[in-house]
Amino acid sequence: MWESTGPVVKVLDALPSLATAGTLVWAVARPRTAVRQRLGRLAHPTTACAVLSLITSFALPNAGLGSGWKLAEAAVLLLLLAVVTRWSPLRELKPTLPLTALAVTLWPLPLVAGASFLESIGFATFWLLPVAVAVAAGAYPRRQELRRRSAVAEARRDQRLQLSRDLHDFVAHDISGIVVQAQAARFVAATDPSQAVLALERIEKAGLSALAAMDRTVQMLHGPAPATEPLPDVSQLPSLISDFTSAGATEAHLDLPPLVTERLSREAGSAAYRIVVEALTNIRRHAPDASRATVAFTPTATTVEIRVTNDGGARPAPARRRVSRGGLGLPALTEHAQALGGTLSAGPHGDGGWQLTAVLPATLRKESP
């Protein structure tokens, strides 16, 4: 320990204070656009300042500058501690936080060398309070910023999932109908031109429906869909079943009691429509030779059950059903049904057939007066 109070020793004792003040000035005395970037780089300079403060506090306790310098030095260290807690990367905070906390809490101890052990503990504990305040002042806005970014990322994820569902449920259904109609028109064009014309009309209708779905999906990128274009619900299922039957060889039948429309909320009704669209699209893609498909709604006291069943068709099940792996339709609809408080499952049925079963909660729809 140095006993001298000469100019060199005084300069060395003032070095941590000058370093902390210079670090802070270096960070803020720049163009405004560069301040935040520089604040994020203060962890290592702050660590160096804390180490200098610890060294000079115990190596030069009698340098003659008085406690004012060390108090100002501790204040600037607290400010730097708050700044690095707010802006610096977490990996760089591991050495900075404990070393800076030690420098602030231990600086008075050399000035009270004659104090008892308990008194020294009291001094150090007292200076832990401003350390905690500085860390909290930096950690709270950092946590709020992380929560905001997480909320934005979650909202973007939900929007992407919604766009994906719209594209899969509606656009894919219409495009698969266009493919079926084009195949049918190709086979009958030479022998029955009138049937080919009807197929072209249905292709046009499916194409316009796909364009409408695309317009709605693209509009979601710019903002919420207008109230004048609500999502389809169970009231549009008769038209959907009719179009499906006319578009291919599978004859579809709908059993929709009038009570169902009243028992499903708007969101559940839209989910029911999506479920039927997904089931029919899968029949068209994976069981094109099925002769019959049945869509049946069964209301109960608290739920509405949806069953979409198709038979095995003419070909054997292994050769007929070409299930593509990794599809997103049924998993997404299963999550949607579960979010509404319902269930959804699908599996083999009968002799080579397939059945999709969904159960959605039933509630009385509240109409506006």
Describe this structure in words.
The protein is of the alpha+beta class and 369 residues long. Among the domains are: 7-114; 231-369, Heat Shock Protein 90 (2-Layer Sandwich). It has helices spanning 7-28, 32-39, 43-59, 67-87, 90-106, 117-188, 193-222, 237-247, 258-263, 266-286, 317-320, 329-339, and strands at residues 251-255, 292-299, 303-310, 343-349, 353-361. The protein has a five-stranded mixed β-sheet with strand order 1-2-3-5-4. Helix 4 (67-87) packs antiparallel against helix 5 (90-106), helix 5 (90-106) packs antiparallel against helix 6 (117-188) and helix 6 (117-188) runs antiparallel to helix 7 (193-222).
Give a brief rundown of this model:
The protein has 369 residues and is of the alpha+beta class.
Strand content: 5-15%
Distance between the termini: 87 Å
Overall pLDDT confidence:
75
Question: What's the Cα radius of gyration?
Answer: 36 Å
Low-confidence stretches: 8-12, 314-326, 365-369
The strands making up the biggest β-sheet line up spatially as 1-2-3-5-4
Shape: elongated
How many helices in DSSP terms?
12
CATH superfamily of the domain at 231-369: Histidine kinase-like ATPase, C-terminal domain
Helix/strand order, N-terminal first: HHHHHHHHEHHEEHHEE
- Class computed from helices, strands and strand pairing: alpha+beta
Count of beta strands: 5
CATH fold name of the domain at 231-369, please? Heat Shock Protein 90
CATH architecture name of the domain at 231-369: 2-Layer Sandwich
Largest sheet: 5 strands, mixed
